[in-house]
Amino acid sequence: MVTLQDIQAAALRIAPIAKKTPVLTSTLVNERAGVEIFFKCENFQKGGSFKIRGASNFAFSIPAADLPRGLVAFSSGNHGAAVALSARHLGVKATLVMPEDAPAAKIAACTAYGATIVTYNRFTEDREAIGRRISAESGATLIPPFDHEWTLTGQGTAALELLNEVPDLDAMVVCIGGGGLFSGCAIAAHALKPSIRLFGVEPETGNDFYLSVKAGERTEIPPPPTIADGLRTPKPGAVTFPIVKEHAEAILLVSDDEIRETMSFLASRMKMLVEPSGAVSAAAVLTGKLPAGVKRVGVIVSGGNV
User: Fold this and answer.
1) Smaller CB count within 10 Å for the chain: N or C?
2) 195 Cβ contact list (under 8 Å, min separation 6)
3) Which of 40, 22, 273 lies closest to 155, judged by CA?
4) CA dihedral defined by 116, 302, 162, 165, rounded to 10 degrees?
5) Alpha-carbon span 95 to 110, nearest angstrom
6) CA distances (Å), 86 to each of 37, 106, 110, 299, in order?
7) How far apart, in whole angstroms, are the C-alpha atoms of residue 100 and residue 40?
8) In whole angstroms, what is the distance from residue 77 CA to residue 160 CA?
9) How many angstroms from the chain centroid is the CA of residue 75?
10) Confidence band, pLDDT 50/70/90 cuts, at residue 76
11) CATH architecture of 4-49+150-301
12) Same-fold call for 4-49+150-301 versus 52-146
């Protein structure tokens, strides 16, 4: 069971590598949305996404005797980059299992951070099995992208920072891939402010959490064809699903066209470069998908690697 105290401890643990990212606002954006929005800009984070929070919290929690054997992770890009950065900080090797169709920019970034890349076919191969095999053969520690308490505890530091800066929010909106960011943020947010309303957001075609919450059990979908490459996880995590189910008021869905339009709008109006996965939360707010009664909302902009 992850607690607020665990997340507060993680904030201190990851301070040597993770940035305290800014919270930005825009009068024009607020007028369009009809609510006051506070963007927690993880697109300005080390490595370009929130992932450094969970990856470094995990890496910095590994017993010192195990570290020389290195780190291994499976990732579509951002988690891999975060693990590579954490490994470089610790002076150890990182091996990343990445899909063949991962964005070239993300593969290039992971390589630049010093990682060894092992590619796989997301339609025919099991990335978790490949990661476990590499871990077993090399002794490297496998760092899951979302489905582990150490990972989601680190991710929750984003909400901790946001609510410390803007405590009087009515709601918080967070993208959902595997559910690690939402889970950590939800635990922090509801501990700090029990009345806050929490909403998860998925692409319409990547709606595994939406379907799972509706069914009351983890539901798997085929690899979704969405521009939001960081949210293509086909099944909720075993650790994260119960947390999302408990804390989320609703799971909202946005189309790829709404994601694209939001990316363009944020770039032109706020001069923010936001990747598709990072834009889904803002897209849900800007397209009026929040229920009535929300006046001040925190939006986690999860990344900017595009």
Assistant:
1) N
2) none
3) 40
4) 90
5) 10
6) 32, 16, 11, 26
7) 31
8) 25
9) 12
10) confident
11) 3-Layer(aba) Sandwich (3.40)
12) yes
Per DSSP bridges, beta strands 36-41 and 296-301 are parallel
Residues classed as catalytic: 51, 76, 202, 206, 208, 302
Class of CATH domain 52-146: alpha beta
Residue from 305, 263, 259, 236 nearest 79 by CA = 305
pLDDT, one tens digit per residue, over 212-225 is 999 999 999 998 99
State how far the Cα of 166 lies from the Cα of 161, in Å rounded to an integer: 9
Whether residue 246 has pLDDT greater than 90:
yes
Going by C-alpha positions, the residue among 71, 42, 289 that lies closest to residue 180 is 42
Contact criterion met (CB below 8 Å) for 57 and 153: yes
Alpha carbon distances (Å) from 185 to 52, 85, 157, 255 = 15, 22, 7, 24
What residues does each domain of the chain span?
4-49+150-301, 52-146
* C-beta separation of 278 from 42 below 8 A: yes
